[in-house]
Amino acid sequence: MTGPITLSGANPAIVSATAPGGSERERLAEAARQFEAIFVRQMLSAARNADFGGDELFGGKGDETFHEMRDARFAELAASTGALGLATSIEAQLARFVEPGGN
Predict the structure, then answer these.
(1) Which pLDDT tens digit goes with each residue over 74-84?
(2) What distance in Å separates the CA atoms of residue 15 and residue 74, rounded to the nearest whole number?
(3) How far apart are CA 36 and CA 80, in angstroms?
(4) What's residue 42's pLDDT?
(5) What are 43-52's contacts with CB under 8 Å, separation 24+?
(6) Is pLDDT above 80 for 63?
(7) Does the CA dihedral 67-90-33-15 come out positive or negative?
(8) Cα distance between residue 24 and residue 60, in whole Å
(9) CA dist., res. 77 & res. 88, Å (int)
(10) Among 2, 52, 87, 93, who pairs with 36 as Cys (CB 3.0-4.6 Å)?
(11) DSSP per-residue codes, 35-79
(12) SS3 for 24?
């Protein structure tokens, strides 16, 4: 028999949220929080791509990478605090499909 499939280079937080262990409800809450973080990161990225004719003094690949890292961290913080409430709404909508106390 073969073992479980592993994803090399996968985000450990995502793998842990979908791995066996913890209740279904806990995994659902973590997946909803991660979705909110991804959503916020995409919104920040789209907003940053808007061209308002700013100066190009500090542009370049380094600046772009820094913005991506900052956006990712901000998105994680926003999702972990529940400030937007998106994860809570997603969890509430999907919780009805999870059996109470199920693993």
Answers:
(1) 899 989 898 88
(2) 21
(3) 9
(4) 92
(5) 44/71, 44/74, 44/75, 45/71
(6) no
(7) negative
(8) 44
(9) 15
(10) 87
(11) HHHHHHHHHHHHHHH-------TT-SHHHHHHHHHHHHHHHHHHH
(12) helix
| Of the candidate ranges 4-8, 68-72, 93-97, the one whose mean pLDDT is the lowest | 4-8
Q: Return the structure tokens found at 80.
A: 């972990």
How far is the CA of 13 from the CAs of 46, 91, 93, in angstroms? 24, 17, 22
Q: At 52, which amino acid appears?
A: F
| pLDDT tens, residue by residue, 18-60 | 455 678 999 999 999 999 999 999 998 888 777 666 656 566 7
Residues of the chain with pLDDT > 70: what percent? 68
Q: Identify the three-state secondary structure at position 84.
A: coil
**33/79 Cα distance (integer angstroms):** 6
